[in-house]
Amino acid sequence: MRFYSTRNRSEPYGFAEAVVRGLAPGGGLFVPEEIPRFRSGVAASLGSMNFQDVAYETIRPFTADDIPDAKLTDMVCEAFTFDAPLVLLGDSSPDTGGRFVLELFHGPTAAFKDFGARFMARAFAYFRRNENRPLKILVATSGDTGGAVASGFYQVEGIDVTILYPKGRVTALQERQIAGLGGNINAIAVEGSFDDCQRLVKTALGDVELNKRLALSSANSINIARLVPQAVYYASAAGALKRRCAASPRVFCVPSGNLGNLTAGMYAAKMGAPVDLFIAASNINKTFPEYLAGGGYRPRESLATISNAMDVGAPSNFERLSSHWTADELRRLILGASVSDDDTRAAIAEVYGEYGYVLDPHGAVGWQAITRLRGKNALYTALATAHPAKFAHVVEPLVGPVKLPPCLEEAMRKPAHSVTIASEYGELKAVL
Ligand SMILES: *Cc1c(COP(=O)(O)O)cnc(C)c1O
Which of 380, 313, 311 has the alpha carbon at shortest distance from 341? Predict the structure, then answer.
């Protein structure tokens, strides 16, 4: 399988090269030359396979030239030590539009980014196996993705991770997830903003002298090795739903920010997973829903909301989506919806009142979008991208106390160890 930059179709890359580079030269995103199909027989049996087997079948067509089959088996078993249960809320009768929640928060940091981060870490380790210098990965985080990256790379051999976060501007839990692991995960608290952290990382990655001494890389969210593993839970869930009720179309509603999750879903559908339609649910950062409604693509500054992992005004994976599908195709395959904070809170309260089930603000954006758009004769699945306890400040005033899952409780018990620096490149360089 060959990969190309979204901005340059003349130069092919292998999967390994695309992963290690992260971003294509010129700033494009890596995409497969063609989205592969499942091997024959696989699409029809997704509903009876276990999660690791679905993972193997979904990822293998992208990686077959670069990762031996036995190695890939090990990698998916090590990465996916948890699965993604489908929970039925209420009535599953398709004529009333049965509604499910796909829980993507059973990984170690209780958010769906664990799927991508854990596979990407193992891919990096494998592609660096013959290098004797450890790879130093630099990441800037505003709080949310830092934990998934830290946990994904924790104890992965041959790799050191340094995470920069804005001092005093992340939650206590986020700080523990970033700075509580130790070992190969180093945390740096920067006296400044997230933008300062990002600037420092960019400067280090571009520092020729430093790059001679250290093998530096980044683990950014647009890495193709983070995207592909996210197709797995769509394939697995769509197979399970089809098995349950073959006659009903299956609609997946994706709470969206940078559109990585949605793009992965579109890959799964194209591969042959039985998904009929997507809903892209955004908060008031509605660049993509406006585009789907027939407006142009107009990126803008982001606005702050209670579903803050989706506060994105210029979604990076739009470039990937539009390299595979035309505007007309996207508008046929995806419905858009934009949900305000008030409607998000209303959905959390309503789902709790009706089913005793607690959604986090991101999942609630998806649920509200389904409530608006659903018709009869289909099964609707809202992706729950984070555990509600991660957003207790939003959720608890609406539903009362929410218990931390064991992984977060354990994280809270670990003291955070980080080095504090001023937001000056000289200080970062000295630490590195
Ligand atoms: C990152 C994130 C999202 C948005 O996912 P994209 O792939 O950026 O669209 C939604 N919910 C949660 C909890 C997230 O962390």
Answer: 311
Residue 275 DSSP SS3: coil
Q: Is 385 in the pocket of ligand 1 (CB under 6 A)?
A: yes
270 is catalytic: no
**Nearest to residue 144, comparing CAs of 190, 183, 109, 193?**
109
Count of residues in the chain: 432
pLDDT tens-digit readout, 83-98:
999 999 987 666 666 8
CA distance 138 to 217: 6
Query: What is the 385 CA–ligand 1 centroid distance (Å)?
Result: 7
Ligand 1: nearest atom to the Cα of 255: 10
Residue located nearest, by CA, to atom 1 of ligand 1: 309
Q: What is d(CA 367, CA 369) in angstroms, rounded to the nearest whole number?
A: 5
Residue among 120, 385, 391 to mutate when testing ligand 1 (max atoms within 8 A of CB): 385
Whole-prediction pTM: 0.94
* Domains of the chain, CATH where assigned: 82-111+226-405 (3.40.50.1100), 113-223+411-431 (3.40.50.1100)
Q: Give the model confidence (pLDDT) of 172-219 as tens digits.
A: 888 999 999 999 999 999 999 888 998 899 899 889 999 899 988 888
